[in-house]
Amino acid sequence: MSGSLPFYQKHHRHYDRGYRSKETESKMSQYQASSRYIAGSSTSATSRSRGLKVSSHSGLEESRLSPIPKRAKPTYLAVDKENQIIGYVVPIFRGSQEFATGLSNTEEARVRDTAAYMARRDLFTSGLEMERSEQISRKEAMRESAERISLNKRIHEHEEHFKRMNEDSLMHAPEFVIKPRSHTVWEKQCVRLHCTVSGWPDPRVVWYKNNVAIDPLANPGKYKLESRYSVHSLEINRCDFDDTAQYRVSAMNSKGELSAFASVVVKRFKGEIDESLPSPRQGPVSEYGITFQTHIVDKFGVSFGREGETMSLGCTVIIYPALHRYQPEVQWYRDDVLLSPSKWFHMHWSGDRATLTLTHLNKEDEGLYTLRVITKSGYETYSAYVFVRDADAEVEGAPGAPLDVRCLDANKDYIIVTWKQPAVDGGNSILGYFVDRCEVGTTHWIQCNDTPVKFARFPVTGLVEGRSYIFRVRAVNKSGMSRPSRVSEPVAAMDPADRARMRGTSAPWTGQIIVTEEEPAEGIVPGRPRELQVTEATKNYVVLSWKPPGEKGLEGVMYYVEKCVSGTDSWQRVNTEIPVKSPRFALFDLAEGKSYSFRVRCCNSAGVGEPSDPTEATTVGDKLDIPSAPGKVIPTRNTDTSVVVSWEASHDAKELIGYYIEASVEGSNVWEPCNNKPVNATRFICHGLMTGEKYMFRVRAVNAAGLSQFSPESEAVEVKAAIASPAPPYGITVLECVRDAMVLAWKQPTFIGGADITGYFVDYREVIDGVPGKWHEANIKAVSERAYRVSDLKENRKYQFQVRAANMAGVGIPSLPSNTFLCEEWTIAVPGPPHDLQIREVRSDSLVLLWKPPVYQGRDPVNGFYIDIKEADAPVEAWRGVNTKATEKAYIKIKNLKEGETYVFRVRAQNKAGVGQTSDETEPVPALTKPGSKEIVVDVDDDGVISLNFECCDLTPDSKFVWSKNYEEITDTSRLTVETKGNKSKAVFNSPGEEDIGIYSCLVTHTDGASSSYNLSEEELKKLLEISHDHKFPIIPLKSELAVELLEKGRVRFWLQAEKISANGKVDYVFNDNVLSQGEKYKMNFDKNTGVIEMIMESLTPADEGTFTFQLQDGKATNQSSLVLIGDVFKGLQKESEFQRKEWFRKQGPHFIEYLSYEVTPECCVVLKCKVGNMKKETSALWYKDGREIKADEHLGFTEGVLKLEIAQISKKDAGVYEVVLKDDRGKDTSTLNLTDQGFKDLMNEVFSFIANSSTPLKITSTDEGIRLYTFVSYYNDLLQVTWHHKDSAIAFSDRIKSGVVGEQLWLQITEPTEKDMGKYAIEFNDGKGGLRRTVELSGQAFDDAFAEFQRLKAAAVAERNRARVAGGLPDVVTIQEGKALNLTCNISGDPVPEVTWLKNDREITSDDHCILKFESGKFASFTITAVNTSDSGKYSILVKNKYGTESGDFTVSVFIPEEAGSKKK
Q1: Is 161 helix (H, G, I), strand (E, B) or coil?
Q2: What's the rounded Cα separation, in Å, for the pair 726 and 721?
Q3: Taking a C-beta distance cutoff of 8 angstroms, is the pair 75, 122 a contact?
Q4: Order of strands across the sheet with 1373-1377?
Q5: pLDDT in tens, 979-1004
Q6: What is the model's pLDDT at position 422?
């Protein structure tokens, strides 16, 4: 018989492979034929899977021929309702709670073979229990053979059915049944790590050493990898010290990935250390004797994202020394949980940069992300927080999506789904949540609950056993539904025990089915379930759990659940139809507020057992209460964009998930969430706040029951950096040394603690024979400078120093002890080192370097400084000078820097003795203009006040503007007054003069070096003083001076326009020193919005000749503008005014807007046109030529106010005087155009210009007579004058050189050209202006080609004229009576005289008495037959030929007999 393989067998390939041999199969068949198959009967049991029945059945009915032994081992087969065998079942053994059917349809080809074999082998092993010596008859063997064939057929049909079953019911992610364990071994020993992995499909297993994949081929003989029957091993041969590492094994299939870890420690025997290896070190472990230094730079900061976006976090990792191909272990954590690559996280290491990409942000991704870089010498970490905001709601006012959806307590009957409530409710309280499920492998989502549930936990029922599902949750309020949450991880609907067995066995397959010592008891009713309890109760559902009865070996136990309302004895069965298979059950539809008791009964095929002890009365309702509100909230300053918020935890909160924090700008009453993922601590740093704003905070707790009330609101806190004591100073150097004192200098701390440094404290100690003594205070009162003279020292003693910085928060920790300095008097001649180097005004191409002169001057005073520069990463040899000539100032602006390059600087002082010691080099500074950098702006206000203005965008609450002149802080306010308001500062010059010339700079403290400078030179000061004078004594600026123009009706307008004038502005109109006033003659208008001032006069009279002036005044600003109208200027304006007046009256009737003119069209037509206006229907428009009216025809037109007369082909007859007359009852207007003499000539010249412009480029062609040059025009006029030129000289035409016109072609013919005719030819069109000339070069190759073509055409023409021809005279057909004479003659031409040949039927004939052939005078050829007969009928041809060609003429002769003709007619 045959059957499906159990799940724990189908993965083992050797089980199938052993029976593929045809020989083996044949022997098995023979053995089975001689064996007895015995069927054992057992009690039927109802299956819990897909309605199947499981019975002890052999596939054959009880054989009357073979008695059943008393103790035969049964074979278990799975059958369906129709008693059809569909699979094989393993009995329940001791220690097992359930059995598995082992149904599978994966790996179809292998299972088909092995399933059939399993059934046959069961029968075979059952037969081995029988007496092998018993012989059966042939009849019995035939019957059994037929039954076997029938059984195999039935099993094959069921196998085909299971191919279509859901494959996903057995697919699951990898799981380590046995994990690898750590080992400690001696050097040169072998070690073997092994593990057992289950999963379907079969997982792919990879081994790693310190997160680097192990490649056995790269290290031959070192590593050996094996994988057999789900057992995977890694063998390390001859371990050495470098094999000490963490090893990871990773198993991966289509359902997921899982890793397990083990450590290997390799020890050495004492005294056997290889001398060539470095000795062991104390401290971090080294690799190859190298200690790695790891630095994480270019770090990611606090990041903000939104759901659905992609975010990348990255850091640059510098490992020193840099070893080729050395790869550190890079790990990423979120909230201290190690992250693994998945579809949500992509990790990348480029060799120097670690990147983590969050492919699709969800609120689950919010948290503290940590990068850990591990080397042999230790590890470095860096952390920053990532905040994830809700995506925009699909419905306005809808809540945010729930988060962290997980599946708990998964079994066959239900799966409990949990989630966390969102921080954002959309402005309305959340009514509840909907849970959706989707079967893995599909995209169809099904809503699991009809009404929203408020409890953040829900048991989902109605699942198909063995199927895998994913879940998501949506929140709803009265505005609408939220976006769905991120989906959960897939989970299968099956009991944990089934899931564990399906994930594989822990040992390799041995080829045997293990039979326990105890078999299921047959016919025994199970006992009471144990330890029944209510594990979870809400107002929506109640979850029960219990333990199976204590008896072992019970067969097919299932359960009925019963409930009873408290106070009654009426027990009601909940699952009446189908008993549950799991020892857990979820009850729904219970009345809220009522109390219930519950009990459970066991059942199997033998019957239903006694009930369990009932539970205590359970009231339906939420056992889990909403947590109480958190206590007092205390915000604390942290940075300029963040605040630390701490609070008192909620009292007696059960199953607390975490807290949500909200912030609100003081007075706004608008609350925004600070976190979108609950935090478990009672302290949280809220980022992304506005610097300088005051915020209040509140907190609420959350658990599965819901969100608590808000805590009391905190006090408002201003967002700015917290104050702390400063970091230690550094870089202590000696500036001067005498017998008993030393002058020290140091650098400012890198972190000043958020407040100005108020001073420094210096300590010293004596060092005797390398042993330092006790520290002593050098100063009790803090010193403000970064240099200090330490006195009362002892000569020729050695000392160390340390410095502490202090601010308002306190005194910081001391610096590291300085180098040891010897106290002895300096006697060198050159100066000591400059000190206190500072860098300001950093831009992309320049910066300013400041320093202080050396304390030790040398023998002579310091008279200059030299500045050195080099790139930060360049070697010492790269130092180079900035200035070739020493500068006397203690500052310099360094220009021509390379953008983005990082530089360091140092300074040297000189005196007469030479150049002294170099200063300490500055910190590296990149040449980059910081975003938002501003420059000092010079301004002169309306009162003429000159000021310098500086704005800073990165101002902090503690920032101050410090103004300096020549980089020395300005303390004297007599020359300059400083005003600061907000983020702007102004330095006002009180009385600007030469004393103020210099470089002015402004530095903003507590910023990232915000500074700028302005060089007030002598020339610049002079320019500013001029502008200041103009502002103090202003004039009203004018856009235009006083002008005059004529308006319609001849009115005269005087006007000007001021650029800007206020509403208080005044204007006086003056004529010849007399003020004019408004009246009939003068109309004044002043538009103060536009600044236009005008005066209008109706007309001009001789009395108006003189000077007109407009005088303006606006406060203290004045201006005036005059216009002189005298002499010819006045007379011309008066005349034009009168003309315009007359024109206005003319235009009251029909009139010409544009007078008569002409236009030449591209078609060389002439159109006379004029534009008219004020026309009406009664207005007549008459055309005249030379006083005679032109009758209207198709050439006259009137469209859109334009009168036209078209002259299509103009000629001399069209010359004349044209006139158009407009007339109606309102008046008359006339326009005349003279087209005679010069007017006609100008018109024709314009026509000729159009013709010339339409001409094509001059081209060359050849004829049989010579060479022809030609061009085409679009239109030709007989009056057109054209001149041909050869070599820039006009051509004198002759019989050999001619010109002409054919249609639109103008040509020049050169007959029989010679080399003299070579050269440049041109045709010139005369249009009365400059003319147009087209040229062509007839020389070189162009002449040769044209001449060759001429010769060819000429020869062809001669040949054509002189070739032999048959001119005519021959008929096509000649019909002649027999006996008659035939005489035909034709004309022949050709030079030389052609040869004549006559042919009959294509054969040459000669002249004889019967056929006489003649050729006379070289022109006439005759053909004569004296007396024709019938033999003369046929086709005749004459062929003429000379050296130029050949031609033929054909005719047909038909001879008839009279009698034949007559008979034919009859």
Answers
A1: helix
A2: 13
A3: yes
A4: 1373-1377, 1445-1456, 1434-1442, 1395-1400, 1403-1405
A5: 999 899 999 999 999 999 999 999 99
A6: 93
What pLDDT does 986 receive?
A: 93
pLDDT tops 80 at residue 1191? no
DSSP string across 1111-1163: EEEETTEEEEEEEEE-HHHHHHHHHHHHHHHHHHHHTTSSEEEEEEEEEE-TT
Cβ atoms of 897 and 846 within 8 Å: the answer is yes
Residues 346 and 356: beta-carbon distance below 8 Å = yes
d(CA 804, CA 760): 6
Tens digit of each residue's pLDDT (9 = 90 or more) over 1257-1301: 999 898 888 998 999 988 888 888 888 999 888 888 888 888 888
Cβ atoms 774, 747 nearer than 8 A: no
Sheet holding 1066-1071, edge to edge: 1074-1075, 1066-1071, 1106-1114, 1117-1125
For 541-554, the pLDDT digits (tens) are 888 888 888 776 56
Mean pLDDT of the chain: 82
**CA 1172/CA 1200 separation, integer angstroms:** 9
- CB 1297 within 8 Å of CB 1251: no
What span, in angstroms and rounded, lies between the C-alpha atoms of 962 and 950? 11
Q: Minimal CA–CA distance to 1337: which of 1316, 1315, 1322? A: 1322
Predicted confidence band of residue 281 (pLDDT cuts 50, 70, 90): very low
Q: E strands of 912-971, at which residues?
A: 914-918, 925-926, 937-940, 946-951, 961-965, 968-969
Residues linked to residue 332 through DSSP beta bridges, in sequence order: 371
- CA-to-CA distance for 454 and 281, rounded, in angstroms? 61
The pTM of the full predicted model, rounded to 2 decimals, is 0.43
CA distance 280 to 228: 40
- Which burial class, exposed, middle or buried, applies to 295 when counting CB atoms under 10 A from its CB (0-12, 13-18, 19+)? exposed
Residue 1294, burial from CB neighbour count under 10 angstroms (0-12, 13-18, 19+): exposed
Other residues' Cβ atoms within 10 Å of the Cβ of residue 180: 23
Give the pair of three-digit tokens for residue 879.
């130092």
**1035 contacts 1118 by C-beta, under 8 angstroms:** yes
Are the CB atoms for 509 and 229 separated by under 8 Å?
A: yes
Bridge partners (DSSP) of residue 477 are 480
- Token look-up 């959706």 returns 436
Q: How far apart are CA 647 and CA 134, in angstroms?
A: 88
- In this predicted structure, the answer to whether residue 86 has a pLDDT above a threshold of 60 is no
Q: Is residue 1391's pLDDT more than 70?
A: yes
**Residue from 989, 932, 982, 991 nearest 959 by CA:** 982
Task: Find where tokens 């304390």 sit.
Answer: 855
For the cut 70, the answer to whether the pLDDT of residue 90 exceeds it is no
Q: Which long-range contacts (CB under 8 A, 24 or more apart) does 437-445 make?
A: 437/463, 437/469, 437/470, 437/471, 438/469, 438/470, 438/471, 438/472, 438/487, 439/168, 439/464, 439/467, 439/468, 439/469, 440/168, 440/467, 440/468, 440/469, 440/470, 440/490, 441/168, 441/468, 445/472
**Which one-letter DSSP state was computed for residue 286?**
P
Of 767, 793, 768, 756, residue with least CA distance to 778? 793
**Cβ count near 655 (within 10 Å):** 11
Instruction: List the Cα angle 999/1004/1009 in 5-degree steps.
Output: 90
CA 1402 to chain centre: 89
In the structure, what pLDDT confidence band is assigned to residue 385 with cuts at 50, 70 and 90?
Answer: very high
Tell me the DSSP string of 1024-1072.
HHHHHHHHHS-B--EEEEEEEEE-GGG-EEEEEEES---TT-EEEEEET
Tens of pLDDT, residues 164-188: 454 445 678 899 988 998 888 888 8
CA distances in angstroms from 181 to 217, 447, 671, 1164, 1291, listed in the order given: 25, 45, 53, 106, 114
Say how far apart CA 337 and CA 946 lie, in whole Å: 63
